[in-house]
Amino acid sequence: MKKNEFEKITIEIFNQYYNYNIGEFNSKSGKTSFWGITKELNNRRQNVVFLYLDNFNDMDISLYDEVIKIIVIDSKNPITDIEKIKETVEGERLIIVNKDNNELLYHSFGVEETVAQIQSVLNYREKLKEEKARAKKPVITISIIAINVVMYIITILLSGNILGSILESDIRVLIVLGAKVNELIAQGQYYRLITCAFLHGGLIHLLVNMYALYVLGPLVETVYGKIKYLVIYFSAALVSSVFSYLFSESVSIGASGAIFGLLGAILVFAFKRRDKVGKGMVKNVLSVIAMNVFIGVALPNIDNFGHLGGLVGGLLISGILLLV
Description:
By secondary structure, the protein is an alpha/beta fold. The protein contains 14 helices and six strands.
């Protein structure tokens, strides 16, 4: 009989911390068996058995010294099912657990020690659930968006003309805050190669880039993990700025170079896993890149060299990271 996740974790914890051993127990018919845990206690063998709504009364308890039934239900089972269990096994030692909610629903008299031990299992499962939930949240993406928004607010406040600078940022303020200016970088202000990626020239510029980051970031963060995601993002931002420095004399700002790096990272992943995600994903990413390149060429004041550098940086670093 195959053990489920709840049984596996309970058996591991009871074995490691409470000196129980794994056991297999017979049904009344003898045709099936149930997983459980067992140990010597006061010259008697205490047996804790996992049962479910469809088999909670099928175990032959007469074959064993002392049996505590842990009946595992889920959120689909109504209160009437719990009452039915309690009536059917009246007089037996019983614990009822909701595995979905990690909740102890009922226990009979005389099983308090085992109840405390089961509660430790439920607490551990709840902690695992919270850790998984945190891991799924795009914390890095949200943090990067927040930094960009804060820097935009600072840009507005420093401009002096708050209403006038909401739609279009003051270029002088952007330079002070760290825009890419070739002459200043040549003088040794290399930090501008990164700081420029967190500055934006206006509200529309900010909204477009943050929306793209909101769409692409969580995917890269999930696929590569948070640390590698940070490496990809900052590497793409840096390579984007280097390309812009080498091939463009214009003042440059914006997160679009790093965002092109995320597109590159998605393309590398889609190509590497094309047997699983399908070739269509590769085509979709290429079409998005092509569309953005076209927009960059068609519209004025777009740092296409920065976009190209970000894409190259994203492709290279993500390719390396997938091999690590």
